[in-house]
Amino acid sequence: MAIPAQFVFAQVADQNPAALQKIGVDEHYGDILPLDLPLLDEDGRSVRLGESFKPGKPVVLTLFYSDCPMLCSLVLTGLQKAIQGVDFKPGIDYRLVSVSIDPRETSDRSKAGRERFSSAFPEGSPVDAWSFFTATDSSIARLTRAVGFRFFYDDNQKQFAHPAVVFILTPDGRISRYLYGIEFKPNDVRLSLLEASQGGIGNTVDKILLYCYHYDPKAGGYVVMADRIMSIGGAITVVILGFIIGRLWMKDKEHKPSKLSTL
Predict the structure, then answer these.
(1) Does the pLDDT at position 262 exceed 60?
(2) Mean pLDDT of 60-80
(3) CA distances from 165 to 55, 77, 115, 208, 225 (A)
(4) In whole angstroms, what is the distance from residue 122 CA to residue 42 CA?
(5) Fold adopted by 5-184
(6) Residue ranges of the domains in the chain?
(7) What is the DSSP track for 208-242?
(8) pTM attached to this predicted model
(9) Taking a C-beta distance cutoff of 8 angstroms, is the pair 183, 167 a contact?
């Protein structure tokens, strides 16, 4: 499904209407990413995208470029703030991966990005909790096609025009959720990670919480499902009533004299 332009925060030179048609997001829910995709890490080492995925750990993917005058920094900062409000531990419960869409970028820029955006993590967090990668033109093209990320380079402004979106991926590399904008609610990030983990993270309370919410594209986030809350409330009420009736029955039985005591 293509996301309408009004739902995509994008920087477009001169507000060119024709250029708006070149940027956006085509949602590919359930599709698996090219895990064999070659990338370069912060130390210039060749790695595969699949190395960022571990059993039970969802991945938060962002596409950016370091020379972006505003939008990329806003998205990454918004994500950084949101995950500070999530009690899951980066690098332990999930990972963050950012890949540059500018093939001219070097690993030095990647290292600077990791140091900047990982600075808010608790002391002792894994060094690869948030990884920054560079890539070639062909790798960038494969990855952006896979997630449906449409962008282009504006020669007049010397900038990339692109949408503002965060991708939530399952531990086996499938697209689970798209989160749009430059600010993200911690609850939306938390629920999307729970959803993507397929039970790999969270506890029973988390699973009940996820059952009570669903993602609403019109609202751009997770909203309460009243009917599910009512069904859970009804079940809890039945359990409580059963407990009370059971206790009353036991007390009545304890106070009722037995036949032997009357002999």
Answers:
(1) no
(2) 95
(3) 24, 13, 22, 27, 25
(4) 21
(5) Glutaredoxin (3.40.30)
(6) 5-184, 226-258
(7) HHHHTEEEETTTTEEEE-HHHHHHHHHHHHHHHHH
(8) 0.79
(9) no
